[in-house]
Design goal:
mainly beta, transcription regulation, 2 helices, 5-stranded antiparallel β-sheet, N-terminal domain of TfIIb, nucleus, transcription cis-regulatory region binding, transcription, 182 residues
């Protein structure tokens, strides 16, 4: 089998963790859902139970899944020195998949990843490490080397709001450009 058995103490802590403290009385057993009558049809108010998948992953190495995730929260866990991180799938804006990541209390070299919900889109072919960031496109070397007749306009080639090229950029006006392929 791939991965550790489910009887691992870290996975048990993550999968069977409950928010109630030891001093509180146990929650009453679940009652059958109330019926709701809408337009002659009877509907159940029971919320669809989402499945939860728990994996144990080493801290070092690549991410265990191909999805892009956005962190939306973090909170301390009672009885653990490590916080739990909360992530949403950012591959598609309507995707309801989420995951929780926490470091194992008994083995800090591993993390416990709990997945809930299902992805509403296909698996992406590549995960862009810079997804969600804005960056300027690099200027090709050929555009730096201009003949005197092809001088760039006064606006910045980098696209900032300064209105002129930064002083660190020297425009080569020689006919033999050191960056050219000729």
């Amino acid at each position: 089998p791939i991965g550790p058995a489910i009887d691992d103490s870290c996975l048990q802590q993550a999968f069977f963790a409950t928010p109630q403290s030891r001093n509180e009385a146990p929650a009453p057993p679940l009652q059958p859902p109330a019926k709701l009558r809408i337009g002659g049809a009877t509907r159940s108010k029971r919320k669809k139970k989402s499945k939860k998948e728990v994996k144990r992953v080493p801290v070092v190495g690549a991410s265990p899944d191909p999805w892009a995730w956005r962190k939306y929260g973090q909170k301390p866990i009672k009885g653990s020195p490590y916080p739990r991180g909360y992530y949403r799938c950012s591959t598609d804006k309507d995707c309801r998949a989420r995951k929780q990541v926490e470091r194992c209390r008994t083995d800090p070299s591993t993390v416990i990843v709990s997945y809930t919900g299902e992805h509403s889109h296909p698996v992406p072919l590549h995960r862009n490490a810079l997804a969600g960031t804005t960056r300027n496109k690099p200027q090709p070397a050929s555009s730096i080397c201009n003949s005197p007749a092809e001088q760039p306009p006064a606006a910045s080639p980098i696209g900032d709001d300064l209105g002129a090229a930064p002083a660190a950029i020297n425009v080569v006006t020689d006919e033999k450009c050191p960056f050219s392929q000729a």
